[in-house]
Amino acid sequence: MATPDSTAMPDPSSEPQADGSPVFGPAAVSPARLFYWSVRRELWENRFLYIVPLIVAAVVLFGFAVGAAHPPHTRAAGSAFANHVAVTPLNFAVFALMLTYVILTLIYCLGALHNERSDRGILFWKSLPVSDATTVIAKASIPIVILPLITFVVLVVTQGIMLLAGRVALLENGAGGAASWVQAPIFPLWAAMLYHLLTVHALYYAPIYGWLLLVSAWARRAPILWATLPVAALLIIEKLVFNSSALAHMLLSRLGGGPGAIEYPPPGNMPIEAPTLANLGAFLASPGLWIGLAVCALFLAAAVRVRRYQGPI
Amino acid sequence: MSVIEATGLRKVFGTTVALDGIDLRVEPGRVLGLIGPNGAGKSTAINAILGLTPHLGELRVLGRDPWAARDRLMRDVAFIADVAVLPRWLRVWQALDYVAGVHPRFDRAKAEGFIGRTNIGRNSRVRELSKGMVTQLHLALVMAIDARLLVLDEPTLGLDILFRKQFYDALLNDYFDRSRTILLTTHQVEEIQNVLTDFMFIHRGRIVLSCSMEDFEARYAEVTVHPERLAAARGLKPIQERQVFGRSTLLFERADRGQLQQLGDVRTPSIADVFVAVIGNAGGASQAGGR
Fold it and tell me: What CA–CA distance (Å, rounded) separates A198 from A137?
């Protein structure tokens, strides 16, 4: 990878020092460059973010290959066979990689601001001219931007391999499904997948990531307990004291993905429809989205502030 | 402009007073040693100077409030906490890439040159390196930063004497010049005595002695007294008396050299000996932290 703005080395005279003391060299690095290197260091430290999806994809492909080589004996109609070698594995790939993504975000967020304190590395990171805000935003970008994109790319490649292999298998078997196969609506599926990742998982779930990052910055130990037990306690207290479950409903509706969401993995078989502008409009018009983003911003601002005070633990 | 300027610097943790009103002024080109027992407030002072902890009182580092502008300050300040802070998963080339990426005053070729003199492999992870090599790596990174203030907090803790010697040799020969300032704390006071231009004793959050090395040599004298002159020597009010190989060694402050010459062999004492004398007199409960 090349530095995105390697040509943007700052001009030494860009920041004349107010006190008139000698300027020793280029005085600043652009915020984009600081952000880029902060994200890269996250990927160095957390290689599981891309290795685990690749392993899951490899396992899914392996299972697909085994399944295609040994189709069930009950294959009768061509469409059923096509279903077996193509449609079901395609959905299974979506399911497996989405589940992986959700698990990885949880593991990553809970460790992101905790591990650097427990390994004392925070003193090294803080000895460099990178602000706490840049660091926290770079860490938040992993579950909100980087991991959805990694998931999407791995999914597209996995399904692409499945489609090519499945097509070959269908042609060799002479099943009549070859024609319908060509029309398999994979692009709408990909579009819907990307839409789902970026709207529901990236934006609508953002306050969840913000909360996890804040706990990770603050908890001295066992961030997973600090992230979950207080919420569970609130749910129980609300039920016992007020005999209501508004908080539970709120959390469930948050997890539901909000209006305009496309359910994923699709409940039935393909074909699936690509998201429309109506979906997007409903999503963007929902107050829940913007309230969630505001809450996420508050959590992240708190995490920045907490990190400022934190040292090794 | 002073590199560090503190007036009434205070820091309280709960009921514990870590820094009890410190006044400090460090000019460019000095190598200042902050010396004190464990828990004296050295690390707290350094954390405040680096913007790692909020503080009370006035504090300016290179003209800035470190707590308000840590990231900006770190363009001009380099810092080694101790040997254990490089993240264990980090590879050597990643450390070089990262610092080159975020630091405007990092000279990568210089750092690679320093690393080339060691046995550190470019692809090694920090956790695969020995403690001494981790320090060499950290020092290589820091010395390649064109900083105006270098802060070292127990940088050689847990290293064997060979690495400690190399560390300070490299620092003085390859790094230090009159435009830079170094602030350091260590327990191995003897080893840095010839490195320092100034030192400060800090005890229970207060500075009990602040002295340049030129002043130190004029101000303190240690005499191994001839037994028959012991009474006369004691009459000159030594600040400390101890027995070395059965002979009395007396430490004097601001005593007349001519008079001392007649009592026995006169030497410049080690900072450690003066530390024990001063801290012992100041509070009793010294833990011989200068040793």
Answer: 17
The closest CB to that of A127, out of B74, B94, B104, belongs to B74
ipTM: 0.89
Among candidates B164, B166, B172, B161, which has minimal Cα distance to B194? Answer: B172
Question: Is B151 strand, coil or helix?
Answer: strand
State mean pLDDT over A49-74.
83
Q: Which residues of B touch A119 (CB under 8 A)?
A: 87-89
Chains A–B, number of C-beta pairs less than 8 Å apart: 107
Cβ neighbours of B46 in A, within 8 Å: none
First to last CA, chain B: 34
Separation between Cα atoms, residue A270 and residue A87, nearest integer Å: 7
Is A172 touching B (CB cutoff 8 A)? no
Length of chain A: 313
Compare CB distances from A130 to B63, B71, B86 and report the shortest one's residue: B71
CA atoms within 13 A on the CB side of A263: 5
**Amino acid at residue number A16:** P
Rounded distance between C-alpha atoms, residue A19 and residue B212, angstroms: 27
Q: Minimal Cα distance from A6: which residue of B?
A: B101
pTM of the model: 0.86
Give strand ranges (E) for chain B: 4-13, 16-26, 31-35, 56-61, 77-80, 149-153, 181-185, 198-203, 206-212, 220-225, 240-244, 247-253, 264-267
User: pLDDT by residue (tens digit) across A131-152?
Assistant: 999 999 999 999 999 999 999 9
CA distance to partner chain A, nearest, from residue B71 (Å):
4
- The β-bridge relationship of strands B56-61 and B4-13 is antiparallel
Q: Which of B71, B90, B106 to mutate to test the interface with A (most CBs of A within 10 A)?
A: B71
Give the C-alpha separation, B136 to B134, whole Å. Answer: 5
**C-alpha distances in angstroms, B248 versus A172, A185, B281?**
102, 97, 19
3-state helix, strand, coil in chain B (%, to 5): 35, 30, 35
Can you tell me the mean pLDDT for B5-14?
A: 92
Q: Which of residues 207-226 of A touch B (CB under 8 A)?
A: none
Which CB contacts under 8 angstroms, 24+ apart, belong to B249-256? Answer: B249/B222, B249/B223, B249/B224, B249/B225, B250/B222, B250/B223, B250/B225, B251/B220, B251/B221, B251/B222, B251/B277, B252/B220, B252/B221, B252/B222, B252/B223, B253/B219, B253/B220, B254/B219, B255/B221
The burial of A289, by beta-carbon neighbours within 10 Å (0-12 exposed, 13-18 middle, 19 or more buried), is given as buried
